[in-house]
Amino acid sequence: MVREAMKIGALGRAPQLPSRVAAAITAEIAEGRLREGDRLPTEQALAEKFGVSRNVVREAVSRLRSDGVVQSRQGVGAFVVSSEATATLRIDAELMSDRLVFRNIFELRAILEIRAAGLAALRAEKPQVADIAAALSRMRAAEKWAEDGVAADLDFHRAVGQATGNPYIAMVVGFLSGQMRQSIMFMRHNQSDIDGHLVDMNIAEHQAIYEAILAGAPEAARDAMRRHITNAARRLGYDLSNGALPADDTAGF
Q: What is the pTM of this model?
């Protein structure tokens, strides 16, 4: 007997509905509520559950099929292929314009990058420190709010990730930086900073991170990154909860 699961809550009204439906189904798989071999509910049932049209559901399932998450069997329905398929690090680009998604990504950055800065201070080798310094230099040379300045900013964070000596941390930091680029550009262009004060503040925060890593001071590096992530989020209109900011302890990463 084929087991169906109807455990997904209804979605609120929002843009990018196919992406949201696909993300919700993927989350159910990742969390084990939909398992390998399970049949998805029918288009009609999903449409009613999410409060969207059948066309939206059809497009969402098509995306999941393209990603290898589900497989359709003619006349039977769509089935979960493998829960492992959801392990691929992926954020739908359409969802990055959503403020809640963007805030969640920023929280992830805080959790990851504060610790990464401390590890970089302990482990960075001369070429990696040079890469961080080069990105900082490009930030200073860039025109206020210019796209190359944003690129240099994100390259700085990638270089810190590389300096941890952990390729997985570097991979995730680089991935998150790439995902946030366009959204940061959009928000920065819509900020009022005629005298460039916010840009100067941003560069000063990066300078503090660099100096702490150069000095091999992990606590100072974590503090500097914490200040930067907190202030950067605030400049973009977000107030990170205290729970998103790791306490400065030495109990590992």
A: 0.63
